[in-house]
Amino acid sequence: MRRVILIPSILIPALISVDLKFQTTGNKNRGKSMEIQSPMKLKRLVVIGRHKKDRISDLPDAILLHILSMVPDGKQVVRASVLGKRWRSLWMSVPMSIDFNFPQTENLVVTLDYLSSTLTELHYCKSCDKIPRFTIGGFRYEHCYAKYVDLWVSFATKVAKVEEFLLGLLSINDQTYDFPSYAFKNSLLKDLELRNCQLNPRTTVDWTNLSSLKIGYIDLTDDAMEKILSGSPNLKSLELDNFSGLQRLEINSVKLTQVMIESYYNDNDEIWLEIVAPHLQHLEVLELCSEIRIGQRNVPSLVTAIFRLNFNFENEEQDLEMEFSCLKELLHSVAHVQNLELGTWCIECLSILELKGWRPPPSSRKFLELNLAVIQLDFPGIYSFLQSSSDLETLIIGCWYNHNERNLLARYTDEDELSERFEKHNVKCSFSHLKTITINNFSGSSSENKFVLQLVKYLLKHAAVLKEFVIASTYQWMSLEYRKMAQKLLSFPMSSPHASVIFSDI
């Protein structure tokens, strides 16, 4: 026998998002199936429910809690308390996350209204048994709002005792929030992200359970960073974003194996950031990072390095040689890694260095990803890296068609000279271990991809044990241009008899 449950409107989002079927546990209905009606019928059921008995409240606690846990909005969970006496305490047992996403406006009235609403919501949420996550995003911080931020931090660390806390502030007129001293002692936090928060721990830090830390838009000191790292013995991942001041990042923990650095800057070009991390396994350096030094002896355990960076010294002409020197130093420091990814700026500089006679150090890398600006003459840099990667097993080429670069390479060579030089190199390089080649973001006409096609032809000719050649394109499936390009690629000779050519859409 099928029974129809009358659904209160407040629970409709949860029941639409999940297909619930369950068995009733009451003695009278034991073993009989109860099924939620389809979403198209829910509104009709709600109207009926206003006049008939509310049967959903008769369900066991376990089922009601499951329904409440599927409600995506924490405010709706709180409002469930108005459904009846049974619900007044039930909603408090549901793990509920709090997310404040401030409207992007300079209207003071709107901002103050939203601030007031956060206090109201926290007043009700303090009764919850468990709040695993608390996030604040997009708040335009000024010192006059410090009391509100103080309350959020206090609620997260003292009242709710959350495991995940994100305090994402936007700085107005370079005003940053001073992170309170008591918040540096918390044994429950697992994931912490702070933006535009000044970190000046006056005593020791006690983040014993912290596994992931993200810090952004901040002026850091060596002393503060040392206290944070020493007070986070279980930290596994560290991300530093848009920061300055730090001169030495020394990581001695065996557990901290992943570091990402994005946009490191200093007003004084004489100040450099040195990274010393003997147990580090994964390192990413992204965006503008002019003054970073990594010696190979400093990162002996490194397995994966990702350099999608750009140097931006103030005097481009004068400091060009310094940029080349910095890049060479970085590449020497990661010659031992198994996996390496380079961004478009690195490839452009490598091309110039190759034309100047410099060669990358030999490596035993197995995986290489190269991102090239297709409109440029990047192939000397690509070739030089392929030549130094004799053990390579997987190669990924990322194509960027509208990438805004400085076009330095055009000062050193032209298209005709480059083509001739590239052809001469063909007989000097083979890939005895290369099994997989992937071309990502492939699009455009044959003329736009002249050099890419030349590179593909070269790779297929020399990869004797190739198993898979994947072209991931943005072409509309089975368009005329797609078919033309596919026919062109399939016409290239392949030295491997076992290679499969795979076309896929992005």
UniProtKB/TrEMBL annotation:
Q: Which UniProt keywords apply?
A: Signal
Enumerate the spans annotated as FBD domain: 428-504
- InterPro entries according to UniProt: At1g61320/At1g61330-like, F-box-like_dom_sf, F-box_AtFBL13-like, F-box_dom, FBD, LRR_At1g61320_AtMIF1, LRR_dom_sf
- Give the signal sequence positions: 1-17
Tell me the superkingdom of the source: Eukaryota
Q: Does the keyword 4Fe-4S apply?
A: no
UniProt-recorded name of the protein? FBD domain-containing protein
Species, as recorded: Solanum commersonii (Commerson's wild potato)
